[in-house]
Amino acid sequence: MRIRLVLALLPVVGAFQLPFKIPFFSQSVQQPLVQPANSRPKIAIIGAGAGGASAAFWIAKAKERFGGIDEVEVDVYDKNSYIGGRTVVYPYDDSTNFSAVELGASIFVKANKNIWRAVDEFNLTRRDFRDENGMGIWDGEKLLFTTSGGWWSWWDSAKALLRYGFHSPRRTQQFVDSMIDKFLTLYAPDAPKWDNITHLSSSLNWTDLVSQSTSEYLQSQGVSNKFISELVEASTRVNYGQNADKIHALEGACSLAPTGASSVEGGNFQVFEQFLKRSQANVYLNTSVNSITPTTANQWVLDSDRGSETYTAIILAAPYHSTKIRVPTDISSRIPPQPYVHLHVTLLSTTQPSVPAQSFSLPSSTKIPAMLLTTFEGARNGGKEPEFNSLSYHGLISEGEWVVKIFSKKRISNKWLSKMFDNQVGWVLRKEWDAYPVLPPTSSFPDVKLAPNFYYVNSFEPFISTMETQTLASRNVVDMLLKDSFDSGICGPAGTPLNDTEKEDYVFGWDC
Ligand SMILES: Cc1cc2nc3c(=O)[nH]c(=O)nc-3n(C[C@H](O)[C@H](O)[C@H](O)COP(=O)(O)OP(=O)(O)OC[C@H]3O[C@@H](n4cnc5c(N)ncnc54)[C@H](O)[C@@H]3O)c2cc1C
């Protein structure tokens, strides 16, 4: 989950002519590598998603600012053929006639200052997330609550007031606002730096939030069970595929913080593509990293599909357990197992302007909203669980044809789609993701630094898991790496005054 300044485009490495010769976006490299004497520092970043692409960008930003590290070379590896970790698709696989539809992460919000700023600086186009055609909450058998406006408008709708009263929405709003206020300190000139996420959590006064489920925490704040099991759970299920009584309250608050919800026209991956382009790192796509082993000279040998290479430092920017990278046991033992929510995404086009009411066995006069969210409450009380976490219309793709996105725990069959949309289904595309970490209440997190000069960006994910927070986690890791190896932080050597601290909408990492 998911704040604006337009600056002149910064030539990120223009001030330093770096000795980078390998073209941007090498698709794969066939020639065997000659292992050169490691005469200048080299950093390997594994993963070209939000975490890895932004890590390369932060290093470039530091190079731009001060000398001493301008000789550092950065290699980014990704086993995918594309940048961004998530991708877009085109209805009917036709990019000429149809616009891109996000298959993975779609939304960032105004409090996500790194991505918001990147969109402005990189001249990308931000698109408001529009869902004004109504929102409803389905429990598997009944439509419990609907608004004629969008999901984001429920807070102050008269209908919400009638159903949930005044105090529960108000207290929930205060809880979310206070979380956002703390979150924004991560961009301030004196932004915290952390080598331990438990300590960070404590310094932000979030220990109570991460150690309790969203339901427990909100109940303790006097929020009613009805409000929690309906509106709050609808948002934890659509954003994280988890119920409010299972997911910790910090992530619960993040799923309730939609102000300024936006996406990038043409696909959010462009932000990460630009991060890498501006970093001038060497990018190796279609290249799996297979193992990382230490050398006796305190360096790391990385074995990938392109051969072996020696590095001064490693930044792992992918969920370790899914990478299948072999590392020494004293490193792997420091990363606790982390289950992920396995999510089925089904995209389809339909000529039905909304799901027909009879598909839900409701009277034909019932108007089914364009965004259907769900609660587990029916199943808790012995009913059946909804077949989907969310089902939402995402606008017209051509005259009289809409695109719909369904998130579900299980595969959605063609038979179910036909039944649901009264046989009016055109294009269908399915994708499975290990989408987000399972986020139960906790008090411990993986280490940020796994060994000397070996850093783990995704240690942040069990705390908060979004595209933006991965850019914050990578900023922190890069700052730590620069301090460890170059006696300098992301904003310069210790003691260097920070620039522009009085600037309106200052963003640490961009403006220092
Ligand atoms: C359907 C869906 C919807 C979502 N919605 C949102 C949303 O609306 N807003 C939001 O902020 N977040 C959302 N998220 C979560 C968001 O996508 C993640 O938090 C974020 O992308 C994680 O970034 P990352 O860089 O850590 O990991 P990833 O994006 O997973 O990147 C890791 C990269 O590492 C590469 N890799 C892995 N192993 C190896 C290896 N051995 N060698 C080389 N490369 C390797 C992978 O190919 C991948 O590209 C959503 C996720 C999904 C799946």
The backbone outline, from C-alpha atoms, is: globular
Class inferred from helices and paired strands: alpha+beta
Major beta sheet, specifics?
7 strands, mixed
Radius of gyration: 23 Å
Oligomer: single chain
CATH topology of the largest domain, anyone? FAD/NAD(P)-binding domain
Report the end-to-end length measured between terminal Cα atoms.
Answer: 25 Å
Cofactor: FAD
Signal peptide: 1-15
Family: Belongs to the prenylcysteine oxidase family.
Protein name: Prenylcysteine lyase
How would you sum up this structure, described in words?
This protein is an alpha+beta fold and 512 residues long. It folds into two domains: 1-125 and 260-337 and 438-512, FAD/NAD(P)-binding domain; 130-164 and 340-436. It is built from 15 helices and 22 strands. It has helices spanning 50-65, 113-121, 158-164, 167-184, 197-203, 207-210, 214-220, 225-240, 249-255, 269-279, 320-323, 329-332, 377-380, 414-420, 467-486, and strands spanning 42-46, 73-77, 88-89, 101-102, 126-128, 135-138, 143-147, 262-264, 282-284, 289-294, 300-304, 307-311, 313-316, 340-350, 371-374, 390-398, 401-408, 425-437, 449-451, 454-456, 488-489, 492-493. A seven-stranded mixed sheet has the order 7-6-15-16-17-14-18. Strands 9-2-1-13-20-19 form a six-stranded mixed sheet, covered by helices on one side. It has a three-stranded antiparallel sheet with strand order 10-11-12, with no helix packed on it. Strand 10 and strand 11 (300-304) form a beta hairpin. Helix 7 runs antiparallel to helix 8. The chain is globular and about 75 Å long. The two termini are 25 Å apart. Residues 1-38 have low confidence and may be disordered. Bound molecules: flavin-adenine dinucleotide.
